[in-house]
Amino acid sequence: MSDPLFPLLLILRYMHILGAIALMGGTIFMRFALAPVVAGMEPMAKADFHEKVRRRWAKYVALAAALLLVSGLINLILAGRYQFESVLGMGKGYHMVVGIKFLLSLPIFFIASMLTGRGQAAKRFQANARTWMNVNLALALTMVLIGGVLKFVKREPKPAEPPRATATALKPAAPAGSSSNSVLPRMHA
Q1: What CA–CA distances, in Å, run from 45 to 24, 35, 108, 118?
Q2: DSSP letters of 51-116?
Q3: Strand duo 82-84 + 155-157: pairing
Q4: Which of 61, 49, 188 minimizes the C-alpha distance to 132?
Q5: Measuring CA to CA, how many Å separate 181 from each of 1, 57, 167, 169, 175?
Q6: Is the separation of the CB atoms in 121 and 113 below 8 Å?
Q7: pLDDT in tens, the chain (189 residues)
Q8: Taking each helix axis from N to C terminus, what angle separates 6-29 and 94-115, rounded to the nearest 10 degrees?
């Protein structure tokens, strides 16, 4: 724990894990526990129940997505401090795999927001909710598996770069009595 950023890294890790638990866990619950029960309800009761759940759950979807995006982007920026071993034999593939993981997050957030949305497009999505929950779970599981692999990629802090010399430090000093580098005019006696 000699990393001075350890407290920040720990907070980011918790944000990422909690966001993933909420988004994926909520989808698992809705797909395998809630959807089968709601399917057997009368249409009016189903619509009323769906609206109540949607209204409450939408807030948590937005919060989970925000936690994941913020922590993921900051972690990606901080990853620039390290040199990574090859990922699955892909040379310097760590950042490429992280990029794939990030790209997979976008449809997950989109589908989750459509399943909790209010607009007409959201209602069309919600008409096929089971299918979209299955797609979302498959994408989320893929992301979790990728994240598991990335966690075990060996990383070393990048060596500290020596301070760069400035142009003025490398410029030879002007000979004594020379006025070429002087800002003030020379006084003649």
Answers
A1: 26, 14, 28, 18
A2: HHHHHHHHHHHHHHHHHHHHHHHHHHHHGGGEEE--STT-SS-HHHHHHHHHHHHHHHHHHHHHHT
A3: antiparallel
A4: 61
A5: 51, 69, 14, 14, 10
A6: no
A7: 678 899 999 999 999 999 999 999 999 999 999 999 999 999 999 999 999 999 999 999 999 999 999 999 999 899 989 999 988 777 678 888 998 999 999 999 999 999 999 999 999 999 999 999 999 999 999 999 999 999 899 989 988 877 776 655 555 555 665 555 555 555 555
A8: 40
Give the separation between CA 108 and CA 130, rounded to whole angstroms: 14
Q: For residue 88, what are its two tokens?
A: 């699955």
| Cα 120 to Cα 146: distance, rounded to the nearest angstrom | 34
